[in-house]
Design a protein that fits this description.
Strand order of the largest sheet: 7-8-9-10
Strand content: 5-15%
Number of domains: 4
Order of helices and strands: HHHEEHHHHEEHHEEHEEEE
Radius of gyration: 28 Å
Bound molecules: zinc ion
Number of strands: 10
Oligomer: single chain
Number of helices: 10
Distance between the termini: 71 Å
């Protein structure tokens, strides 16, 4: 390789700058190690991804999206982003070019709307449905507390909801949530819940998600909305002991822990809705509460 390089550099000695030298080195590597470079190419293709980083999201509602892809795809996308950002400015959007480029990603998520915007036609009615769950405290309802919580327990300012209401590109759905008078289980008749159905209704699912926030297996942090909704006392249609389909008997379990419970002898019971006592196959016991998991094996011995 050294001989090859000497020759190439000597040939172009007068014009070689740093950039040219890099290119010659790259070319030399391609010629001399073609197979390795092919493997490198395949690895690079495998590494393409689009990652929405949920950890980057905080109370501001602003987050990061990272894309690694084929240059041609990225370039084409970036050109459309620039085109939509310019159209937004033409429509009177006062934000900076960076902010408009970021907004353009949302516009492009609704292709019909993006086409109308670029062509200067009136926007069609929004197709995107954004679900923002905002959990108000009692103090917030009377205007004393500007802080609420989303479905994962992240604190959010009520300002964010106002911002959402002002947007004309998403349709806003207000979904009331029953939290007062929630069923506590026991002898109560589970009034208003779909107790006869195996699948819980949407309101009950949301109630369980907001109450438990994550999979309720000890120490698991998988968000509840990505979990299965498990009947803690099994739903057996023909048994008089059948567990009801009601938040007082439902808990989020991620797929992995759902299987673990079914297959490997982990057991759990509800102490009260939102508080679970787990027993592992070796007799170790854990209390899972809204504040986290506590190993209570010694205290229950
Ligand atoms: Zn109930
Ligand atoms: Zn889990």
């Amino acid at each position: 390789m050294a001989a090859y390089l000497d020759e190439e550099i000597a040939r172009r000695a007068e014009t070689v700058g740093l950039v040219t030298l890099d290119r010659i080195l790259d070319e030399a590597k391609l010629r001399l190690h073609a197979e390795e470079r092919e493997l490198e190419q395949l690895e690079a293709l495998d590494a393409r991804h689009v990652l929405l980083d949920e950890r980057s999201m905080n109370h501001t509602g602003i987050a990061d999206l990272v894309i690694r892809g084929d240059w041609a795809d990225l370039k084409a996308f970036e050109e459309k982003v620039a085109e939509v950002a310019a159209a937004l400015a033409d429509n009177g959007c006062p934000d900076s070019v960076d902010a408009r480029r970021s907004m353009a990603v949302g516009v492009l998520a609704d292709p019909e709307r993006a086409l109308a915007l670029v062509a200067g036609r009136p926007a069609p009615s929004p197709k995107r449905r954004v679900v923002l769950t905002y959990h108000l405290t009692d103090a917030a309802l009377v205007g004393l507390d500007p802080v609420g919580f989303d479905v994962d327990g992240r604190p959010l300012l009520d300002q964010l909801v106002r911002q959402g209401c002002a947007r004309d590109d998403v349709s806003l759905v207000v979904q009331p949530l029953r939290t007062l008078g929630a069923c506590r289980g026991g002898a109560e008749p589970h009034e208003g819940h779909a107790v006869e159905d195996y699948r819980p209704n949407a309101a009950d699912l949301l109630e369980v998600e907001l109450r438990d926030r994550t999979c309720v297996h000890p120490y698991c942090t998988r968000p509840a909305r990505h979990c299965d909704c498990d009947h803690v006392v099994p739903f057996e249609p023909d048994s008089p002991e059948r567990g009801p389909t009601c938040p007082c008997n439902l808990a989020p379990l991620c797929r992995h822990h759902h299987r673990l419970k079914t297959l490997s002898g982990w057991r759990y019971t509800i102490i009260e809705p939102g508080i679970y006592l787990w027993c592992d196959p070796h007799g170790q016991r854990f209390l899972r509460t809204p504040d986290g998991t506590h190993d209570v094996t010694d205290r229950l011995a």
